[in-house]
Amino acid sequence: MLFSDVIGQSEIKQQLIDMASQNRLSHAILLLGPEGSGSLALAMAFANFVSCIPDPSSKHNGPALMVFDENSPEHLKLPENPKDADNWMSSRSTFSKLSAMVHPDIHFSYPVIPRKSGDKPLSTDYASEWRSFVTQYPYGNVYDWLQFIGAENKQGNITAHECNDIIRKLYLKSFESRYKILVMWMPEYLGNEGNKLLKLIEEPPPDTLFLFVAENESQILPTILSRTQLVKVPSPTVDEIEEGLIRFANVSPEQARQAASISQGNYREALQVLQHAEEDWQALLRDWLNAALKTGPIAQVRWVEEIGRLGREKQKQFLRYFNHLLEQAVRLEILGDLHLNMSASEMDFAARLNKIADVSQQQAIIEELDRAVYYIERNAHAKMLFMSLTIRLYHIIANKENIILN
C-alpha cells in the first residue's frame, strides 16, 4: 500500500510524513475517520513508510547513520512529501513484502470470530483472508469484513487472547526493520480486555509503533484513547471521490460524478452505488411516496414487503439515493438549476419533491432517513423500520397536497 493508493487526504499524508521525518513520531497514533475515509489504507501506507526507516545503529547500514540529526555528516534525509515517499518505498528491497502484507515486523489486529465453538481466535488465524480482503476492499467496513470471513450474524471481537498475542509479538526483536509496528483496525471491538495492553502502550519496547484505526471515538476504551496521539481523518470531498472512481473503478466521469454526489463523502458508499447502478431506485421511491401519501395501507404493506427482501446494503443505498434527491431538491429550490449536476429525470423528480414538501419538511425527512440508515447498520428489523418510516414520512408531509409522482 502506497500513499498514492489513498483517495485524497493530501494534508493528512503530509502530516504523517512530517511526523516521521522530523522525529516527532509518537509511539501510539489513533487515525480516527468515518467509514469510507480511507483511514485503514492510510495507516497501512504509513506503516510501510515507517518500516523503511533504517536503524541508525544497524551494521547493514555501514557506519552509524544519524537519521534525524541534520548537523551530522552521516544524516539520512527522509522523503518530505507523499510522492517522494512512494518512490522511496518502491525502491526498497522489502517492497515486495510490504505489497504482499507479509513483512515480519508489521503486525495486524482486527475483529475475528471463533471458527468453531470453544475456539480462542487470533487475527493471525485469518491472515490469508485479511490480505485478500484488504487487497479487494481497502475501503471496506467491519460488516464487509465479517461477511467476508463468513461470520453471518456473529459478532466479531478483539479478545484477551489476542491481546496476549500482541504483547508476545511486540516484545520480540524486530527481524528486518528498525520499527515493530502494530496496525489495529477497529479498536472499538476491544472490550475491557484491552486494558491488558495499557502497560505495553504506555511503556513500549524501543522503536515500537501502535497505529489504531477507528471510526467511533466514543466506543474506544478511554484508557487507550488517553494514551494515543489523535489524527483526525476527514471524509474525502466529492471531487476526490470522483477522481478516485475514475482512476480505480474505471468508470466514466458522468457515472463517477453521480456516485460521488450520492455517497456523502464515503468512498465505500460510492463503490456500492456503482455496484447497484442497475437498480431502479426512482421507480421504487415513486411507489413508496404514492403508497405513503395516496394509495393507503395495503399498498404500504406490499411496498414494505418488497423493500424488506432487498437486503441491508441495498436498503441503505435506496435511502442514500432518496437523501441525495432531497438535498438536490433543496438546492434546486434555493439556487435554481444552474448549480446542479443531475440527469434530466433526477431534475424532474427533485422538482416534484419540492411540490409536496417545503425545505423544512425535506430537512426533517433527511434526518429520518439518516436515522434509518444508522439503525439498518445495527441490524434493525427491516420491515418494522420501513413501516415506521412510512408512517413518519406521511405525518411530515401530511399538510401538503397529495400529488401522485407519475
Question: Main attributes?
Answer:
single chain; 406 residues; alpha/beta; Rossmann fold; Zinc Finger, Delta Prime, domain 3; 2 domains; five-stranded parallel β-sheet; 18 helices; 51% helix; globular
Provide a compact summary of the structure.
The chain is α/β, with parallel strands linked by helices. The protein is built from 18 helices and 5 strands.
Please give the CATH class of the largest domain: Alpha Beta
Strands in their spatial order, largest beta sheet: 2-3-4-1-5
Flag low-confidence runs.
Answer: 59-75, 401-406
Strands, total number: 5
Q: What is the N-to-C order of secondary-structure elements (H for helix, E for strand)? A: HEHHHEHHHEHEHEHHHHHHHHH
CATH topology (fold) name of the largest domain: Rossmann fold
Describe the structure.
The chain has 18 helices and 5 strands. The chain has 406 residues and is α/β, with parallel strands linked by helices. The chain folds into 2 domains: 232 residues, Rossmann fold (3-Layer(aba) Sandwich); 118 residues, Zinc Finger, Delta Prime, domain 3, CATH 1.20.272. Strands 2-3-4-1-5 form a 5-stranded parallel sheet, sandwiched between helices. α17 packs antiparallel against α18. The radius of gyration is 25 Å and the shape is globular.
